[in-house]
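#structure-requests
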Amino acid sequence: MAYWLLKTEPDNYSYSDLERDGSTVWDGVNNPLALKHLRTMLLGDLALIYHTGKERQIVGLAEIVSQPYADPALNDAKRAVVDVRAIQKVKQPVTLAQIKQESFFIDFDLLKLPRLSVVPVSELYWQHLMQLADSKV
């Protein structure tokens, strides 16, 4: 199992929207590196849902419920998507400021590549983020 962080603009599609819908097609990824990460996702991988914009915080947990496939809305085989299912909101949102304050996260791609919308999360980072969020999967 792999772990991921998926960024979304809450005004566009929030974690509450994902909870309401149950699942969704995770689309709109344009960056080549983010697309590469998305194409390596496997059924059952877990993801942190991160609200960008003014919030800048981890707000929920989700599961990847499909293999990557070509975006059906676009005529471009390179533009992959996955289906994502809501699991639960985190008990305590984890802000970008909190993450930046901890030297533990110095090599986290969320900090090193801040514009990347699909970020791999190591198991150690995942466990620590779950502690900060006071959440379990």
